[in-house]
Amino acid sequence: MQKIENAIERAIKFRANGIFVSETFDLARKQATKAIENGLKPFPIVVKDCFLTKDAPTTCASQMLANYIPPTTSTVVDRIVRKGGCIIGKTNMDEFCMGTSSQLGHFGPVKSNIRSEGGIEEDWMIPGGSSGGSAVAVQTGIADVALGSDTGGSTRNPAAFNGIFGLKPTYGVLSRQGLIPLVNSLDAPSIFARSAEECWDFLDKTRGLDDNDSTSIDLPESENLDSLKNLRVGVPIEYHNEKLSENAWKIWNHAINVLKNEGAEIFEISLPHTKYSLSCYSVIAAADVASNMARYDSVAYGHRSSNNSSTHEMYAESRSESLNTVVRRRILAGNYFLMKKYRSKYYEKALKIRRLINDEIINSFNNLDVIITPTASGKPPKYSELRDTLYSKEDDDDYFTQAANLAGIPSISVPSTQNENRENYPIAVQIMGNRLNDRLVCDVARMIHTKF
Q1: Of the candidates 136, 53, 130, 125, which has an alpha carbon nearest to the alpha carbon of residue 324?
Q2: Which stretches are annotated as coiled coil (predicted)?
């Protein structure tokens, strides 16, 4: 119980960082008491506010759902609570997961606890997004592990910017039941922790088939990797491009040398369709957003405008008042891409490109065990550097992470120990593996982390 009280004290200490949408301290205490009664050791967790929790509000950091308390709890949250997890709070995020900065939520921005050198007090380092609140909760020591979601990099990006581990499992290994959807075919409940072992432990506690999620799959049992010798590692040439900073390239190259020194076999590979992943993702995501956001009509639930002159006016005004610029823009773009005269030109073409990206990556594992790339282009930017472009900028860092979602493969962000990091900011590399090789990517991450 003391561990839970310590986590609550830290949550209060870091309130100014905007980590939580809802603090659930009393709930955590009740869960800890029940865990002890059941012979379990309670441990503090936090949950991104896009997972349903019947005992606490679920808002998606939006005015649309500002007062919504769901009638059920998501499968992955329920499973970890049954294993002793105690929810300290629901974490802040970009509204409806649409963003890469965690600055676009209705309840205010998430502020990284990593300070810029010579920075002014009102400036801060961007924590990454959209799962920034969960990442900062782990980085500040509030939670042992945190639950996030990852559609195009929303866990690995903030993990890289906060110097912690971020695991996106194989699509379907963690149930999506109770995860408010962004892009149904790409969304993956994901994990933040301070070690690869903790990432795997969380995954192991919560994985498995779910009768309420037809996309859920079993993860076969696998043995622990005890050596990197003869591990076949692919290094894609397309990831060394103009988006990548010199420092991030040095860390990536250093990690490759660590693998080589440990006996791994390094192969230069080409994934030529990767360059289309950002455009492909943008079209598919907008189309799914347009469909998924249609449920928020302010009739059954959600924010309702005082303008009730007609159903049409109430519907339009309610959505305009309660959804931010990014969300509204994606809804409009998605409806455009799905129009009959544009569907084949944009949406269907994006699906074909996704298939090419998928096949390219999956086929590469015929001769490889893992692929290593940068997680992000460089160090986390300052808020002041993005302030004027937060609602319009497409983040180049997604270039490095989106392909793993398009292919449905496991991927983990591994923080550098900064032996080669001259800027002294968090820099990370990404380990990707074939589908269902989640244990392998965690083991490789564990074995290289302390050496680079």
Answers
A1: 130
A2: none
